[in-house]
Amino acid sequence: MNGIRLRTKIEVMFVLFFLLMLAIVSVTSLTRTISDTSDSIETFIRNSKGNIWEPTGSNIQSALYSLNSTGGTVFLPVGTIYINAPILTVNNTKLVGAGYSTVLKISSSFSNSFGIIKAGVARKQNNITISDMTLDGNNTHAIMQFQTAKFITLQNLNIKNCLGNAIYFYGNSTNNLITNIRIYHTTSYQGIALDWVHDTIVSNIIISNSTGAGAFGIAANYGKNVTFDNIHIDNTSYGMKVIGISPYVSSNININNVFIDNVHTSDDIFKIFLANYVNINNLNINQSRGNGFVIGMCNYVNANNIYINGSTIYGIKVSDSKYVNINNGMTRKTTSSGVALDNCDSCTITNLQTMQAGVYNLISSSEDITIASSNFLSGASYGLDFADCSNFKVIGCNFLNNIGDGITTEVTSCNNFIIMGCYFKGNDKAMDIHASDNYFIISSCIADSGDSVDVNAALSSTRRVNDTICSLVVS
């Protein structure tokens, strides 16, 4: 009897042990979330809840959806994941790679008209981060777009081979950050395109080797409170533009530390158009083919440290604008004017050096213009040509070795101007003043003995002497 009881106990214990082991195996199978003896975290897609998936494009989508409305992070492994359909964004989530060696690449079977990343819910994108990976358009598609998006962060991204916009925000998107991005080999559209984007920072950007009829490095349209910092654009069809379209203007734009090299367009390289309250600091344009720095139909633009070197048509061109201040810059070897202003009002240029301008530096149909402490050197024509201008001042400037006159108003008459404290040497004439000019003062200037001065026609006996003060000093 005792033997039977003992055997029963043993059988019961064996059954319990078997059930326990079965339970352990089952639980292990159900909760295989991070790794087993043959898996590594770095080879799987995983989320912040601890779930893992095989590294496929559709599983990236599953991982994002698994976070639901609570949000979280999806981590991508090292390696190339081919994308067959756009990844739809999920609010309050982060999609994070393991660095540039994580590659999302559009596959040959990708047929959607959108790119790798697309808005999951139109006009309701909020609090999304995409970072630390390479995005490859495979020369067939754009990369990403966001509509009416808020608090989107794009950082530490390597974007290449896109046919279309690499990054596109539109539809009153606000409070976004685009930083530490390299974009190269884009065609047809822009590296970064911003339409109706406000309160956004774009910083630490490199855009290179981009071609196509509309391929700007950066194109920002109708934006407000947007900052661009540390931008490098190289070997593209166009450079950078910030514009509005009437009646909508861009406003409160800050642009700092922009370097543009080898842009191929014969149009505008760096353009500010229909914009108000724009601050630009440290713009360098080198060996590019179009108009260098162009301002049109703008108010309250301050530009400091502007350097335009070689191959441009116009160096600095301002038109139809008011309250533009340009301080401390250089234009060199331009095929047209080093600096030109047309139909401008209340503008100031100080500490500017123009060298080897291909034609005259022209100030036309403008008023209340001040040019001070600037040098106009070795131009192929006039140092400064004023045409149909009034209330302008040229103070403390040097005009050296220009083939034409240092300053002329001879083409079209001007009125109410002051030329004071300027130095002339090696020009055709120091100054040539139009016979019909009125109410001008020329004072405390020095002209080298080789530079003649022609103001006699302007001081004809038919004019009242009190209208004009001319006390030019010739050495």
Brief descriptors of the model:
475 residues; 8% helix; mainly beta; elongated; 2 helices; Pectate Lyase C-like; eight-stranded parallel β-barrel
List the helices and strands and how they pair.
Elements: H1 2-30, E1 45-47, E2 52-53, H2 57-66, E3 72-75, E4 79-83, E5 87-88, E6 93-96, E7 102-106, E8 117-118, E9 125-136, E10 144-147, E11 149-163, E12 167-170, E13 173-174, E14 177-187, E15 192-195, E16 197-210, E17 218-221, E18 224-236, E19 240-243, E20 250-261, E21 268-273, E22 275-286, E23 291-296, E24 299-309, E25 316-319, E26 322-332, E27 339-342, E28 345-355, E29 362-364, E30 367-372, E31 375-377, E32 384-387, E33 390-395, E34 398-400, E35 407-408, E36 415-420, E37 423-425, E38 429-432, E39 438-447, E40 452-454, E41 469-474
Parallel strand pairs: 3-6, 4-7, 5-8, 6-9, 7-9, 9-11, 10-12, 11-14, 12-15, 13-16, 14-16, 15-17, 16-18, 17-19, 18-20, 19-21, 20-22, 21-23, 22-24, 23-25, 24-26, 25-27, 26-28, 27-29, 28-30, 28-31, 29-32, 30-33, 31-34, 32-35, 33-36, 34-37, 35-38, 36-39, 37-39, 38-40, 39-41
Antiparallel strand pairs: 1-2, 1-3
